[in-house]
Amino acid sequence: MVTDALNDIRQAISEIDSQVLALLAKRQGLTNHVAETKIKHHIPVRDQKREEQLLLSLIKQGQQHGLDPHYVTQLFHVVIEDSVLNQQAMLAQRANPESALPLNRVAFLGDKGSYSYLATQKYFSRRPGELMEIGCQSFADIINKVETNEADYAVLPIENTSSGSINEVYDQLQHTHLSIIGELTHPIKHAMLTACDTDIAQIKVLYAHPQVFAQCSHFLAELGNVEVKPCDSTSAAMLAVAEANSPVVAAIGSEAGGALYGLNVIKSNLANQKENHSRFIVVARKPVKVPLQVPSKTTFIMSTVQKPGALVDALLILKDKDINMTKLESRPINGNPWEEMFYIDVEGNIEDGPMQQAIEELSATTRYCKVLGCYPSEEISPTKVAAVNALIK
After folding, report:
1. Domain named Prephenate dehydratase: which ranges (predicted)?
2. Domain segments of the chain: what residues?
């Protein structure tokens, strides 16, 4: 009798969940109509004031139903982020009609289950056309696939909140003619994965990508006498564990990736930083146009003359144009000892006046300056709601 009553309640919950999904789909359709209006009248995608008013209204309505303000805020942050990203994707497609392909051939590191694979799935889920996955074993191979027209796009990890910049990718960007056309940030949740029922004390061999080992160094230090075996990708690590089918062999990877290989999770949240995210860039043979209504980034590289203050002088050009720099990375120039190439990310559209002026001045005052790409920013910062308003009774 108790089981029947529980099943009835669960069935009712499932029916409500289905209704919620249908309403979310209806809401998404309406936001697409909003995007059409913004395209027609050149209105910016984001309206922070409107978003704040919406959240305050929803919080008050939620409280009338006994819902916690923080719960309502977190829920609608996700809804608003999805709406913004869908509108940005629609505007980008309208500005680049030639980029809408029936089949998107995408090269990435590893195979099914790798973090690059998961990032690829996430990014192209908002783009039209079918997805053809091309797993590669090195960053050089990924770049080559696009350069030789074996792939249309490449997804490359560029930095991680725990282990920092991925230098090999920066070095590849220095020598390619490909353009950065997109970005995304993907949460990285490392777990210990095994093919058999076992526990951590039994593990003698551990497979993972070197970047993963770096991101989980604190956990590795606690393991003790375990043989660490680096792999080209997390998918290769998981495949090795699946093939070994041994209680003493494990891999570090994502739970979602492990499920594709039939692996069990014996410990989660292994990263040094619990808020662990990787930023990926998407590159293609041709640049894209980014509508001015869409928040965008521009990435460029430059080398300065060898004199005191040369880098400062270059960066002051950005400051004078009120352009915010979000990333500065230096890498040695091959064949030029003690000289550096600087990689710079800024908030701004290359089609905008201040950004154009900045690039022109940098080209005139530096030894070398090249734009690697202008692309929509997919780092959607949550709308802030004052705590005093959020907790109104």
Report:
1. 105-285
2. 2-96, 97-188+277-284, 191-268, 296-376
